[in-house]
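COURSE: Structural Biology Practicum
ASSIGNMENT: Worksheet 4, Part C
STUDENT ID: 0417
INSTRUCTIONS: Below are two proteins. For each, the amino acid sequence is given first, followed by its structure token string. Answer the questions at the end about the second protein only.

PROTEIN I
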Amino acid sequence: MSVTKSINDEIKNLSEVSFTEIYGNRNREISIEISENSLEKYNLTFDEIAFAINMGSIDLPGGVISSTKGDLLIRTVGQSYKGDEFENIVIRTNANGSTLLLKDVAVIKDTFEDVDKFFKWNGTKAMFISVNLVGDQDVLDASDQLRNFVKNKKNDMPENIQIDYWYDQARFLEDRINILYKNFAIGMCLVLILLTMFLRPSVAFWVAMGIPISFGGALLLLPLLGVTINVLSTFMFIVVLGIVVDDAIIVGENVFRRRIKLKEDNFTSTVKGTMEVMLPVFFGILTTIVVFAPMLDLAGDTGPIWRTFPLTAIPILVFSLIESTTILPAHLNHAGEWFQYRFVKFGNILRSARNYFSKKLYTFVDDNWLPLVKKSIKNRYQTVSIFVGVLLISFSLLAGGWVKWQFFPVLEAEEVAIVIDLPEGTPIDTTEKVTKMVEMEALKLKNELNTENNRKIISHVMTTVGDQYFSAQEAESSPTGPVLKASSTPHLGEVVVILTPADSRWGLTGAYDIINILRERVGIIPGVERLNFSANIFSAGKPIHFEFSGNNFDDLNRVIKNTRLLLSNYAGIYDLNDSDKIGKSELQIELLPAAEAYGLTTAIIAKQVRQAFYGEEVQRIQRQDDDIKVMLKLTKIERDNARTLENLRIRTNTGIKIPLYAVAKVKEIPGKSAIKRIDGKRVVEITSDVDISKNTSSMILSTIIGPEGNPINSLKNILDKEPGVSFALAGEPAEQAEQLQDIFVKFGIAIFTIFVLLAIPLKSYFKPLIILSAIPFGMVGAILGHLMLFQPMSVLSLLGVVALSGVVVNDSLLLVVFVNRAKENGDDTLTAVIDAVRSRFRPVILTSLTTFLGIAPLLFNQSTQVLFLKPMAISLGIGILFATFVILLLVPVSYVIIDDFINLISRNKKKSA
């Protein structure tokens, strides 16, 4: 204990540490224990002993004497600070002059308070120091200081004490920043290489420079918007890496096209090329911002988390627009072939490569793509039918379970938490025995895996008895917040298996592999109410979570029993629990009429019972840094015996001693662990996890819960038998229902807003439908992407589709605007469409490929820091590839169909006129 306090003091002196907290320590306490027999023998009461202690252990100032030499303070010194100093306090002076001392009637212990909680580290008793930061302190600097402190301190520790460093959350931030730099560098190189293949090196360079400029501008604004560099904002930079250059590509490619094709000088091609695409670029960015806007205020507990996405993306897009329409044209105006002249040989190679790829691209367009577009336009209604069929098939893959749905993706952590709940009232010794069984299996597996693989798989095993420390800390950061528990929880236990970083053991053993092994080895432990295995970084709640409410306990119990039986029949269901737990049994004391005859009240009896069993805090003294309680109570043997309560002597005001059983009735009442009520009705919850390799929560719920959240089929039959019991979804199912509905509503509003915005540059209410028709097909690419990469779809996948919609609208708008301009110049619809497809093929392909390449490092990165956003990356990355096919084929076909419709209306108007 003294070593821990000394280290804690040293850590608090580090410049980047705000405050620390010690876990696993026991406060010192001076315990004065007196038996019931001693009280009876010497005719004493707790109040008399407490009074004597306070009178015999005291420091009291007595005033001030003023003299010529100065003021002198008077103080009576008699305060006891150690256990043995209390022994000689006089309790009573007898008539014969003898004294009764405290040590004559009581056992005095200067030790630690009884706490039903302790920690173990790799099987050895341990204490923990939690280090926290506040304000503007830098977490990375603090982490470096602590690592160096522990490293240096290891050599100075006593022989029987070790120090270690664990749960360094700064490491995750470092990993995210490193991944950002790495993915940014890879994405930047891929984008630059791609642009150089089709554009001049100088143009490609200035287009790519839009990335750091847009990112830099956004970084200046993010603190003002309340956004920090965290996992969401960091990866949003990676997600929009390819999107950022879309506007620059459109402007740069058009300027480059005019300069080569129309032989215009630098100034003319720059001004006309920029102004020619200014309208679609501006409205493209505007519509992309509108698409991101719904994420600013999504419903549900997890809704506020997603607002980081738009708050990060929107500033980047705004600066991208400013850069591509002002700074980029200024650079393109003087961009020449300086690279070719400076590095003649390499410049010639680049020019030859560019000419080769451009020639191949347009050969493909002229010989393959344009004939396909013409044929599709000729059979346009059949073409639309095929696309609609593909759309329906892709949705059927999701509905049929080929592509699994999971509201929130399972994110594998680097810690496996095994939570153990015994019935309330279980003594700490029993909890320790049960917890040790799990701990021994974890330590055994640690030795096996680390030996078999010749590398460390499991680094440590932490055990908590009397608490569930790690799970409670994880709950603090969950969207629903921590779960409140009683201060004394000797019936709880926890074993945390701490794995090495996932990147160092990739392909060997994952957290869920550890869970499967330990679940099989531990098996079912008799007497354990809950044995839960988890390894989630983040959770929106249990995938199965029902709430049943009613006034009749028997009706509720029958519903709970039958619902548990129903759920247990589904494949993949595990850790099935309900909240109807038996709590500690209570010994309730009720006064008998005889108590009144002795002048006893409830308060008098309650006080004496509390003094005997809980104890009375007689004094509180300060000894060095310790705040020590002086507690007066019965001996531990008597306190742990229920018969002591019944035989306890109650002292009346007249000095008569009466057994408790003579004036009060003691009865044992079975208690409940916790009783939850909503609107006055008692609520019992059923929760369960689902093994996604065998089933999904959505597939299970679809068989017993209707679209509006009402019970159907078997669950409805169970509830129909108990009309007094009500049902409601909770946890992840309720979060899913609320948030998905909000996403669809707000995304629908965003789509309508986009329709209104597109009607301005297109000067039509029908032509925006051409662009909007391409949005659903982004979902097709997202579903196929998840199917190919064997990933379940989640709410993050939908948010990726939302981001994808902005890119789809941007490219489609560019195509439609060029068709409109050609028609304004006198071209017929078919010619205008074909020419627009040919002239816009390269920028559309480039914007799509840069978006894909910018996000590609995320798709193929296996770090646990990337898995969080992988569903979103799949939707955007794979979705844009399919959406490009749709833009360059379906949009031209849709334009001709809309044109047919407009012409039909015009002819009907002429006939009616």
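PROTEIN II
(use this one for the questions)
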Amino acid sequence: MPITPPVLNDEVLIFLDIETTGLKFDSDKIIEIGALKIKNGKVIERFHSLINPRVPIAFFITRLTGLKEEDLISKPTIQQKAKELFVFLNRHPIICHNASFEKGFLSAIKGSALENTFFDTCEIAALLYPTLPSHRLESLLKFFKIKDTEAHRALIDAEDTFKVWKSLFINLTSVDLERIRMMNKIFSKTNLPIKKIFSDLVRFLEKYSNGKSKEQEISSLSSKINTEGENRICPPQGRQQINKEIIKEIFKTGGSLSQTMKDYEMREEQMLMSGCVAEAFNQDKYLTIEAGAGVGKSLGYLIPCVIFSVNNKEKIVISTNTKNLQDQLTQKDIPLLKRILKMNFKTALIKGRENYLCLRKLEELLADCRHFDDEGKFALVYLISFKCMSMEGQLSDISPYLLRKNKYLANFVKFLVSELPFCLREKCSYFKQCFYHRMVRRAQEANILVANHALIFSQPHWMPKYSYLVLDEAHNIEDAATRAFTEDVSFEDLLSLMDSLLDKKTKKGLFYKLAKKKYSIETAGLKKLEGQIFKVRMSLSDFSKKIISFFAVDKQQPAFKIVTKNFAKVEKKPAFVVAKEACSQLINSLRQVIESLFLLSSASGLDFDDRVKVAGLAEKIESKVRVLKELLSTDNQEKIKWMRFRRVAGKETSFLWKFFSCPLEVGELLIDLIFRNLKAAVLTSATLTVGGNFSFFSQRVGLNLLKKERLFFKSLDSPFDFQKHTILGIPRDFPLYNYKNRQEFINSLARGIKKVALSVRGKSLVLFSSRERMEKVYMKIKEFLEGEGILTLCQGLDGSRYFLIRQLKEARGDILVFGSKSFQEGVDVSGLSVVFIDKLPFPHRHDPIISARRAHLIKKGKNPFKEYELPLASIALRQSFGRLIRKKSDFGLVIIFDNRLLDKDYKEFIITSLPQSQIIALGESEFYSSLKKRFAALKKNNQKS
């Protein structure tokens, strides 16, 4: 039986939770308080009271807690209970989950700060278990296998907090000792109350280390990883083709999949897809395959990938556009295949260098520990724990809770990014432990590499050679490649680079570090560099004024964009010439700094570490100069160039600028960088065809430039019966959106969503192409719908995309979630009743990339609407439609509030591209009543089956 560490055991502890009408302690009110008094690990007293807030209770609070206004109307007010509460609390330490919340409300009641010491189990969990994806109370209960209750009630949550508190420490063993020692060493230099917890832990772990030496005890997860393997995949002599009969045996009823997977249903389309992938690998072809919702694409391509890779000792790269799909592949699908195929193969999740924590930089931060206040030291303690416990060192795994709460942590994370110019490689003392280089070594050893499009299109130098590539979510290839090939430079970039050399305000920067080391040969050189940095700042300020004047950015305009074609028209205008001269002066000033840095980096007096830092900064500045040179150039017509201006907060006339440059077309670049170097490729998605063929997709990504005999196209229908399960609704006389009638459109949209939500109920998703329009409609209907028992949440206002998707998945009652473009794909929630779409998702013509590509098509004598905008809208609409049916048992409505689908000459083009469903297209007076009846019949028929 595990021993409970005696953490704070010499004190009486209070475990407290409160429920409130909202999150703001200065305006919201308490509705319930629950607390436990604990001594020596046992409950000695409880406190519980419902509170009359004397204000209305928001619906989401009722949904969360189960408490209604009528439950509280006869209860005491908080003022009437305050004395009893504070007597119970006395001056004992108070432990809560997210303690700042309770502390704020209690201080507001008392009218002054409490004398009690507060401890936060969310913070402590993040410190001890730094890589958990969530440190919410519900997540920790699940992690520690503690039974959770559905309703959030104060006393229950206080009890759950106590259970989590005990579990946090019981699970620690002697292997954690050195990590806790390092954390305690920094905490001991603070005035934070939490330091007592860690000093108690160190004493406990030392006592129960069973006499093991420190070397035996240090066994953090990061050091357990095998980092030294040199097993490279060497191709065998000759190629072994994939036997399609083996694939059939795996997929058939009674085969390997059905024996391993619960509720497995053989899908003919999935087997066909797998056979097509096998054929592409066997015959060295480029397969473009559209597989509708429910086909099961990932297993469809993974099985032939694994068989081919193992049999031929060939690396195969699988690239996705979203992290969700990466997680599905690495955490679900690939582990399943290891059980099914019984083949010995290795996989590696690979990401760009900027995703990984640099251990040498962390050492630099720790060396400066004494210069930080207590909050900064707390962030460093977390980073120590993260470094020890992280398997892969990915900065995206840093606790979101602490990133929001700790003002230092986000800046530390930016600093800790692994960067090529500053990497010491084999000469770094952390090379063998380096998260990034361990990933590179795993990539060399793996059969299957799981990557993302951004990494594939950037082609880093360390990328292992591969000849076989699968691009999933392939409808995003053009956008992903455009982002990967986009370069930018900004006022803030250049100012930050100068500050990293010399920041006189903070007395920090490389200049000061070198000067402190008193390199005898460099004193004069450093003085010269100081003057050059000053000159860059002056040139940067002058250029910024000139470029803002040239683009006539006024104080009423928060942003301004310009594309390539405008430069040529104004080339001879005086303001353009002045701005161009100022840009040239800025470039010359930067080049002088670069030259001085390169000379400094070759000086014999510098040690290797400093030399790398100096040269690295020179390289970073050079990369920005290269982009800056394109800023006012009118030569390169194959580039799209634009600027954005952002007003500085609090200063009406001050703006920051950022310049962007990207390719006009990406097809040829993709061919040269990616496709021509491959033996075979698979490009797959649920939405690749437009008008029933692949020509639009092929042209946009460059496949039309390859030999036709090597191209292989296949379209597989979804196994879902959309005609039986789906109704497409289009109100015939709905107002058409334009700028002049936008308020009428918003009013009609709010009215329509309300009517459908009330008649259908269940889980619904509302998709908007404009965030502003989304928020206006949401504000109009939220209060009404929640009064009718429908929880209504909006992206950004009520939480992040991740939070809202989780609410949608876990909801047991009626819920309506408003989402923007990011919800149009990658949202896999079964059981939706309705997907609302505000209007046809045509691309925004004011977007500089869309605008430039439209102009390019016009120049070529083509119709940009029919040949570019309409296909993009069709694909986006199909993605939105695809959110509704995720399983064979799903059924529901897709409602599009855009009657252009009924009247425009492209109606057949778009309607026929959507899954064939039942259609209701009536005037508003009949539309909603008909929709209600038809949905009731749809529900009845599907519940029977």
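ANSWER KEY EXCERPT:
Q1: The chain is about 50% helix and 15% strand.
Q2: The radius of gyration is 31 Å.
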